[in-house]
Amino acid sequence: MTEPRGAELLTGRELEVPADPLTERILDAAHEQLRSFGLRRSTMDDVARRARVSRVTVYRRFGTKDGLVSACLLREYRRFLADVDLAVADLPTVEDRLVEGFVVVLRHIREHPLVGGLLRLEPETMLPFLTVDSGPALVAMRDHLADRLRRAQPSLGGPVRDAEAIAELMVRITVSFLLNPEGCFELGEDGHAREFARRYFLPLLAR
């Protein structure tokens, strides 16, 4: 049986990297390599050495360095989403959960040792992975948020129209603030981020 290539790992609606021990080992190695040396100074050979596998195995799994980086970042984004769900689970309303989720995402990504570190130190290198090459991550985050909006429909008194479009708009706005925080919106403090989300995100839920 041949190993799946990067294109197969990172396309399709589910966007799942195979959850087998070898893949996890390679992604763990990539995480440590990127965290220690950044994107520019890291190679597929470096990751293969850390994972104690051949470079051929890494290439067969992920196709290219960009494919490996995308898979590594996608795994981190999925972990973010699980952390966000946990952080907002006890809040009483969907509006509160949406607002606090925005705050948690901004704070978590900024403070994350890999993603936040790369955004601070190599923003120009990270840019494609959050824009033109961000398809898998964007879809994963959009679908996750759209699912949460649909689940909240009973408490909102009816269906959320265009849940997927609303979710994508929210994700794109959040990413833009992470890439370029300078502007007329001051979101550096949690209170300001909450105010922004209440003022600009919650009206999108209006039926």
UniProtKB/TrEMBL annotation:
Residues 20-80 form the HTH tetR-type domain. Residues 43-62 bind DNA. Transmembrane segments: none annotated. Keywords: DNA-binding. Gene3D superfamilies: Tetracycline Repressor, domain 2 (1.10.357.10). GO terms for molecular function: DNA-binding transcription factor activity; transcription cis-regulatory region binding. This is TetR-family transcriptional regulator. It comes from Streptomyces pristinaespiralis (strain ATCC 25486 / DSM 40338 / CBS 914.69 / JCM 4507 / KCC S-0507 / NBRC 13074 / NRRL 2958 / 5647).
